Amino acid sequence: MTPEVNSEQAALWNGPGGHGWAAARDMVDVVLQPYEDLLVAAAKERPRSGVLDVGCGTGGVIRAIGAALGDVPCVGVDISGPQIAVAEETANVRFFQADAQVHPFEPEFDLIVSRFGVMFFDDPVAAFRNLRTAARPGGEMRLLVWRGKGENPFMTTAERAVETLIPDLPTFDPDGPGPHSLADPGRVRTVLDDSGWTGIDLRKVDLDCAMPEDALPKYLTMLGPVGRALQTMGEHERDEVLNTVLRAFDPFVSDGEVRFPTASWEVRALAPL
Ligand SMILES: C[S@@+](CC[C@H](N)C(=O)[O-])C[C@H]1O[C@@H](n2cnc3c(N)ncnc32)[C@H](O)[C@@H]1O
């Protein structure tokens, strides 16, 4: 029997969180395109025989890797049913819904990637130990994880703007699974070391992300704690809150574009030979 883990995250990503990301998939792929490019370039560094994308969402990254690598088998796994349901397979790219922390993988991948999909495990050491079972001996892992909130101001702009309007906004527990749970490089090294990965290396990635200004209301309504709160509001309250949040994004808007700096780690590790 599959152990019962990650129940809160499973509920979030199979509920409003996952539906929001599924509905906003085109926009997510535009905003996070620079990070997709980085992982596609990593995949092309050497010949590959199988690539796994962990927490693949609606699959934009692994589809791009699959297209870049020709006929190399590529697989995306995600806990979120709503996102896997709209992830479009291609000749060499397939998807399945599972919890990557406990799914019984076969050692068939020589590259494991993730764009912001590995920060939500309730037991990261168990999860990365399990991911090691998906890697061939000597297989590589390339993960993108967010650095801290202070270095990623756009990620908290909406929450800060509604502090008084929605005082009880549910947000991620700073000490638990969530977008910034692997922001501390020392913690990342300890987690990967304890789960049996070698050659652990963290590199700072600082990239500007952007979207058309007219996409911002949809972005804010679909994603994150504020997006989920907006979806439950009546029209009048929603307009008031959304206008407040949109004003808070003014510093990021110019020439019809929303552009913001982002800060992450590219984490590299190797499965033992
Ligand atoms: C921030 S989203 C990133 C999605 C995608 N990688 C992208 O860049 O568009 C985080 C993803 O991790 C997935 N996730 C969270 N916990 C997971 C788990 N235990 N196993 C597999 N996927 C998980 C979520 O369902 C979600 O799709």
TrEMBL record:
Transmembrane segments: none annotated. InterPro entries: Methyltransf_25 (IPR041698), SAM-dependent_MTases_sf (IPR029063). Residues 51-139 form the Methyltransferase domain. Pfam families: Methyltransf_25. This is Methyltransferase domain-containing protein. It comes from Lentzea flava.
